[in-house]
Amino acid sequence: MIKSEGQDPANKVCFIGELKSILKQTRNWNLLLFITTIKLLLIPSYFSTDFEVHRNWLAITSSLPISKWYFENTSEWTLDYPPFFAWFEFTLSKAAYYFDKGMLEINNLNYSTIQTILFQRFSVIFSDLLFIIATLLLSNLIYSNISNNNKNNKSSSQSLAWYQDKSFLVSLIVILNPGLLMVDHIHFQYNGFLKGILILSMYFIIRGNILVGSVLFCVLLNFKHIYMYMAPAYFVYLLIYYCFENKKNNKFSISNINIFNFIKLGSSVLFIFALSLGPFIAMGQIPQLLSRLFPFGRGLSHAYWAPNFWSLYNFLDRILLFNGLYKKIPFFKDLIISSDVSGNLTSGLVGSDSQTHAILPKITPPITLLITVLFLIPSIYGIIKSKNWKDFILGICQSSFTFFMFGWHVHEKAIIMITIPLGFLSLASNNRFSKLYFILSTVGHYSLFPLLFKPTEITTRILVLAFYTILLYLSIISTNQQSQSKKQNNNNGLGLYFYEIVYLIGLIGLEIFNIFIHPFYLAHIEKYSFIALMITSVYTSIGIHYCYLYIFKLIFSKD
């Protein structure tokens, strides 16, 4: 930690100084210009139904009183985000009025004039400024902290310059995240704005303003409740190092409980939730609000299987069903097949959770919750072990990763909840984190390709990922070479094993199949119409499982 919680005035000045410092750097402005240009070029791209979702939410929040926000159902895309995001849409609607009033009419379903498209796209780009500033702040903080710890080096000026370059490269890696570009600026969502709040929260906690960071995380939860994926990591960190902090050695001890900090933390959390949910509590609408936020009837898996544990489970069920294979296996042959799930080999498994598996046992929300909790226990070990900023970020990533792997009805887009915070570790500790991030970034972001399914987006998605992967590779190689010259570290390059290289190259073959073979030879056959989606999900799931286990190796390592 750079500052302690008791030094708020100094921290405030330091924060303002850090903000001024990053805004004075020309290369940061060049980066902003570069990424904004890319986003502007993506404006004409295809956009998904999420575009209409957010247009409808603009109309709901601007046209109706708050008492009707979570009851309105003219469109199938009803409001299902927490209240703070609804107020965010309400604020945007005030500017949308001057672009095209038609987008604010509830009955104008699928309304997409040029003015509406421009407003929606520009609103995402503008709100991304928070994400960019927060990223620059956090990367500058953590690598300035490293450089401060190396002041005794004989070549201190060279060392400082190296860490400043490393800070900028990390910012570049995080800000240019290809998943965020594909999901927000093509597919259409506001993840960048939300990640900005998350990164600011991490920034304040790492620099010692724990109360500010915790308040920001509570605010984030009331913008989008999926960030509960990260809540266990935050809870453990705040409990151990804020409510039970030992000032002498930063070790956890229940005998050193700080009641004052506990009350401050609890009060601030309650205040944020009261501010968000208070009006709905007063109106007696909490049950309706919760029914919108947690629609468990949607089924175990999304229409396109997120590449997690359940994609492999679904795949095994379909393989057993294919051509009656289960009849040839003694354990399965006497099972009764449900007649309403024995259709398409690669059906999306979306809708009622009763229509999930034909052979394997039915999975229910309580089962997914139990498995998730069990795997969360080792995930938070790193946070308990150390207060180090790396362990805190890694704990956030692994907590989110665990929910991604075993959660109920996980969306494939949730992979960027892991890759973006993990990007801050991409150049840390040489190959320990860089290899992990390189594999997860390549595989995880490739798994998003089915979101951009139109032929006109194929070139775009390939260029975005290829450019980023090359940039990431060069950044890692450059950083490791400099590290080698300083520490005589012979572990140069990515350090990929042969089987890891073969697996990554396999993504090229998979893309060739998806572009040239499936559409022309298999797509017209009903039985194989979704085979490309299934293969993509299963293949990328293997790599993502590998990265998930690799993080456990990092957490339990002695270093």
TrEMBL record:
Q: In which pathway does it act?
A: Protein modification; protein glycosylation
User: Into which EC class is this enzyme placed?
Assistant: transferase
The record ties this protein, via PANTHER family, to: DOLICHYL GLYCOSYLTRANSFERASE, DOLICHYL PYROPHOSPHATE GLC1MAN9GLCNAC2 ALPHA-1,3-GLUCOSYLTRANSFERASE-RELATED
Q: Where are the transmembrane segments?
A: 29-47, 119-143, 198-220, 226-244, 265-286, 363-384, 391-408, 414-429, 436-452, 458-476, 497-522, 528-551
Q: Which GO biological process entries does UniProt record here?
A: dolichol-linked oligosaccharide biosynthetic process
Major subcellular location class: endoplasmic reticulum
Please name the Pfam families in this protein's record.
Answer: Alg6_Alg8
Query: What Gene Ontology molecular-function terms does this entry list?
Result: dolichyl pyrophosphate Glc1Man9GlcNAc2 alpha-1,3-glucosyltransferase activity
Question: Topology versus the membrane, per the UniProt entry?
Answer: Multi-pass membrane protein
* Source species: Dictyostelium purpureum
* GO cellular component term, pick one: endoplasmic reticulum membrane
Into which family does the record put it? Answer: Belongs to the ALG6/ALG8 glucosyltransferase family.
Quote the subcellular location field of this record.
Endoplasmic reticulum membrane
What this protein is called in its record is Alpha-1,3-glucosyltransferase
Enzyme nomenclature, EC number: 2.4.1.-
Q: Tell me which UniProt keywords the record has, alphabetically.
A: Endoplasmic reticulum, Glycosyltransferase, Membrane, Transferase, Transmembrane, Transmembrane helix
